[in-house]
Design brief:
There is one protein chain. This protein has seven helices and ten strands. By secondary structure, it is an alpha/beta fold. It has one domain: Aldolase class I (TIM Barrel, Alpha-Beta Barrel), CATH 3.20.20.70. The protein has an eight-stranded parallel beta barrel with strand order 1-2-3-4-5-6-7-8. A two-stranded antiparallel sheet has the order 9-10. This is N-(5'-phosphoribosyl)anthranilate isomerase. It is an enzyme of class 5 (isomerase). InterPro entries: Aldolase_TIM (IPR013785), PRAI_dom (IPR001240), RibuloseP-bd_barrel (IPR011060), TrpF_fam (IPR044643).
């Protein structure tokens, strides 16, 4: 049996990052996508990362960012891992000297295994809910039975997770990690400390 890792995404405040770290999150996500209500500036991201204790992975989320924009952010912000949430092709995700995970939005009829196979250099694949025109953060769950058992890559499960359903999600999908944003919020981009702690407690209690 093994423990499932966890990421609290959409962090916009130092206090929320510290709550996540203290409650046992393995990673925090910082959104560099201006259209998101959880977007952070370079300075916000630097301040949040500087406040973190050791051994918390910092993940930068990007949606169809240009190489120039992404390069400028990486020059200024010490991110550990990149998360691509748009229509990026494999070549768009590579060449930044950092590991990356590719987000795929799941809907009925998708050949998830074929999509995953297109990104052989990805450190992991994040599976999120498909909603037309929205790259992520919808707060809606998808049908977990659509996920194949062995995709050949570590799977990060996202989409509509919260403390009430994360155990069932883990038991059904058996992912490497789970990713939550809206399910632990008091408002867009503002985390609820009690919800964060409850979510992470459920994750830690569930092994695969």
């Amino acid at each position: 049996m093994s423990l499932v890792r966890s990421k609290i995404c959409g962090i916009t405040r130092v206090e929320d990052a510290l709550v996540a770290a203290e409650a046992g999150a393995d990673a925090i996500g910082l959104v560099f996508y201006a259209k998101s209500p959880r977007a952070v500036s370079v300075q916000q991201a630097r301040t949040i990362i500087a406040a973190l204790p050791p051994f918390v992975t910092t993940v930068g989320l990007f949606v169809n960012a240009s190489r120039c924009e992404l390069g400028e952010i990486l020059d200024a912000v010490p991110l550990d891992l990149l998360q691509f949430h748009g229509d990026e092709q494999p070549a768009d995700c590579e060449g930044y000297h950092r590991p990356y995970i590719k987000a795929l939005r799941v809907k009925a009829g998708d050949d998830i295994a074929a999509q995953v196979a297109r990104y052989p250099k990805a450190a992991g694949i994040l599976l999120d809910t498909y909603v037309p025109g929205v790259p992520g953060g919808t707060g809606e769950a998808f049908d977990w039975s659509l996920v194949p058992h062995d995709l050949g890559r570590p799977v990060v499960l996202a989409g509509g997770l919260n403390a009430a359903n994360v155990r069932a999600a883990i038991e059904r999908v058996r992912p490497y990690a789970v990713d939550v944003s809206g399910g632990v919020e008091a408002g867009k981009g503002i985390k609820d400390a009690d919800k964060v702690r409850a979510f992470l407690a459920e994750v830690r209690r569930t092994t695969i």
